[in-house]
Amino acid sequence: MQLLKTKSGRLLAVILTGILFWIAWPSAGLAPILFIALVPLLLVEDFICKEKLAGRKTGLFWYSYLGFLIFNILTTWWIYFASPFGAVGAIFANALLMSITFQLFHIAHQKLGDKYAYIVLIIFWITFEYFHLNWDLSWPWLTFGNGFASWINMVQWYEYTGVEGGTLWVLLVNILIAKIILAEKNKRKEKIILVSFVLIIPLLFSAIIRINYKEEIHPIEVVVVQPNVDPYNEKFSGAGNVWQLEKILKLASPFVTSKTRLIVCPETALPDGIWEQNLNHSPEIENIRSFIYPFPGLRYLTGLTSYQIYYPNQPKSLTAREFPSGAGSFDAYNAAMQIEADTIIQLHHKSKLVPGVEKMPFPMFFKYFENFAIDLGGTSGSLGVQEHPSVFTGDSIIAAPVICYESIYGDYLSEYVREGANIICIMTNDGWWKKTPGYRQHCQYARLRAVEHRRSIARSANTGTSCFINQLGDVSQATEWWVPAVIRQELNLNNKETFYSQNGDYLGRFAIYLSAPILLILVIINMKKKKG
Q: Which pLDDT tens digit goes with each residue over 95-140?
């Protein structure tokens, strides 16, 4: 603790927090480090809190901001390859939100003392993460519970809590370890016993779940295609629908058998845009149907850019764009569709859009700034969305078509499951981030969705990693980066809903209900002190 008495010592401590989170983070991170990553910052906060009580005016905010900024930079620097401006915005803003949350805990510590302040930290932090999942500037990539994605056997109980249970676990252990360090020597033993229980019991519970979980045998054969189309120089730069579709069908052809029930292709595999009113008459759809016609029961899932017309006097969305002629308007979508040989095409419009890339946040207020949305190729500006996700049905297979960014939202995926989805198909294009931790982290997060909902996953990525994930979160047939590839495997369907699928992010909702009265209490205490 002597180290914290100097400014340089406190700076070293918060820098250590940022580095420890980075070391712990997927894809190749050491997840157990999460249990000590926050401890240095908690010790700095405790020291500053006590120094303030002694009359010193030493602020915490900039210390915490430095630590969280280092965490954000080291783990998400790769956003730069998609957008330098977006990287700066996401990294600095996310660190700011984390620091504000930690500062609110610091205020509570000053007002309420040790007895209640750490409970407030847990409530405020889970509230922040839940809020960050559900507003227009959503960027939940660094939710603490995501940190176990590469160590999935530690958190098989996510089927009950989702990733917020992991956040609770991380916070609780860090707090208890910090309390051990701060405690008097004669009181440390009981605290060590307590933290041992908090660490070991979830691990044992996870091991028991894994040992006893058995997938019901309900197999279907799935083919996943990774066409490896360069997103910068080919996909949206003249290669066109025809060339990309021909490449996919040529790759898939040797792998499709009479038993194959699903072909899964990546996000925007048809990038040029197809008018939804004319889907059945487009040459791309005709080519796909000709390909799958010899295989009864085969369904083709693919990503595409689609457009929907709003005619004059027809109600339109906030994201609708006007035709230059003024004769009506239209919406552009990042979409997925399911094609069968002789049935109606089913569509899903991506609902969880990337802020600043696919949407202008708060469109009611900033509609006229959408031309400043970051252009990553294809259709830029604010895309249209649908309020609730669609499932693709047919026979016994009910597929959840999950497009890219949507796959990091566990609560959102629970909507698919409650609609009957018994398999998850993730379609993504991670090539924007090049060969960096970004595409690997994104793939690892899919493992969390498999555990939360106990659904098999077929993941098709344009440039990698494509793979299959079973209901325990185990990855198989992971493809190499930046190579064309096709993989085939039998996956088991599952129609049972987990507790988390039924209830979603209930821990986050509960934390929000608790946060409001706590904030009110802090305001009242502050007002009373000012009057006194």
A: 999 999 999 999 999 999 888 999 999 999 999 999 999 998 999 9
Whether the link from the prior residue into 253 is cis, omega within 30° of 0, is no
Rounded mean pLDDT, 239-259: 95
Burial 52-81 (b: 16+ CB within 10 A, else e): beeeeeeebeebbbbbbbbbbebbbebbbb
- Residue 236 in tokens: 């949206």
Distances (CA, A) of 217 to 157, 299, 507: 22, 21, 32
For the chain, give percent helix, strand, coil, nearest 5: 55, 15, 30
List 426's β-bridge partners, or say none: 402, 459
Helix (H) or strand (E) holding 348: strand 346-349
DSSP-assigned states of every residue in 269-325: SEEEEEEGGGGGG-HHHHHHHHHHTTSTT-EEEEEEEEEEEE-TTS---TT-EE-TT
For 8-122, strand residue ranges (E) read none
Which of 32-41, 127-136, 151-160, 360-369 has the least mean pLDDT? Answer: 360-369
Is residue 444 left, alpha or beta, with left meaning phi > 0 and alpha meaning psi from -120 to 50?
alpha
pLDDT at res. 378: 42
Q: Are 427 and 437 in contact (CB under 8 A)?
A: no
Task: Identify the bridge partners of residue 310 per DSSP, sorted by sequence position.
Answer: 329
The secondary element (H helix, E strand) that includes residue 439 is helix 437-453
Structural domain boundaries in the chain: 2-212+505-531, 219-491
Tell me phi and psi for residue 305, to 5 degrees.
Answer: -95, 130
Q: What is the rounded distance in angstroms from the CA atom of residue 365 to the CA atom of residue 350?
A: 22
Topology of domain 219-491 in CATH is Nitrilase/N-carbamoyl-D-aminoacid amidohydrolase (3.60.110)
- Cα dihedral 155, 157, 162, 167 sign: negative
Quote the CA–CA distance of 494 and 424 in Å, as a whole number.
10
The contacts of residue 226 (CB under 8 Å, 6+ apart) are 266, 460, 461, 462, 463, 464, 466, 479, 483, 484, 485, 486, 487
In the block, tokens 């809903």 appear at 497
Q: What single letter denotes the amino acid at residue 522?
A: L
Q: Alpha-carbon torsion 129, 134, 137, 138, what sign?
A: positive
Give the chain's length: 532
Q: Are 179 and 524 in contact (CB under 8 A)?
A: no
